[in-house]
Amino acid sequence: MTVKIGFLSLAHMHAHSYARALQNRTDCSLVGVYDPDQKRGEAGAKGMNTTFYSDPLELLAQVDAVIICSENNRHREFTELAAEHGCHILCEKPIATTLEDGQAMIEACQKHNVKLQIAFPVRFATPVMRVKEMLDQGQIGDVLAITGTNHGQMPGGWFVDPVLAGGGAVMDHTVHVVDLIRWFLGKEFVSVYAEVDQMLWDVDIDDCGMLSMEMEGGIIVTQDPSWSRPRTNPTWGDVTLEITGTKGVIQLDAFAQNFMVYDDEKKKVSQRSFAEDMDSGLIDVFITMIKENREPSITGYDGLKALEVALAAYESARLKKPIPIN
After folding, report:
1. 104 and 127 share a domain?
2. CA angle, 284 as apex, 256 and 68 as ends, to 5°?
3. Which residue has the higher pLDDT, 276 or 159?
4. CA dist., res. 154 & res. 200, Å (int)
5. Number of Cβ atoms within 10 Å of the Cβ of 20
6. What global pTM score does this model have?
7. Is residue 192 within 8 Å of residue 322, measured between CB atoms?
């Protein structure tokens, strides 16, 4: 079985990495790209060596599944459109900009009997998968507390538009770490206290924050999501966790497997990963899900719960008090 895939929008930079992962496989084909921004869509399709479609319905009629890499506030629109045409969906994170939109996406996929997977590729980083195994084996006993970071460079573009993105650094980076922790522990977050601000860049959206959270069982979690990495930083950012248990501590750096590249021609120092490509891991499970009729490994509900924490953080910062999560 060859799975036929299309892209709905290339607004998110991960689209090109996902396309490379698709093209490295022999059991799927990239049929084409639709993007409401014709210039962006045509350029992207050319770079991916595929076809640009000016009409999304024409593309949807030819594919089994789509990857949605649009601006965050258009995830619902594209998900409902794809579901109505019987296409399975891999949707970039966050699932949406509101809980109402996220829930509507889940219900649309259920109504039309299509599968919805959310793009949390950090789950497929090699160190992250190893930590999951260690926790499942109980190697550090009962988890008591976790402290995490997801620092990055300020992405610019639509990411700093409050309407299109739905939030800044806290939205962009909280959902990754929250998803990892929920996946690691199988527990939910029950409250959030957050401070959110714009301090680092000349943008009209939050670029830093600090979250203090409680999970079921009294586990305490702190998270630093920020766009705090300078333009000259050798890599875009990090995902780190320190997990304290009753029998030990695990320190995780999801992107530590790298070497430094000094490029005199470009006058740039950069980090280059030698780990397995986590975007390829995400695509692998998506294609396998379709071929073998499996349930998504990262569900719409997972996306909704991660969004719930991020939105509660913004509400906490606005009201200056902890916000309970149902």
Report:
1. no
2. 95
3. 159
4. 9
5. 15
6. 0.95
7. yes
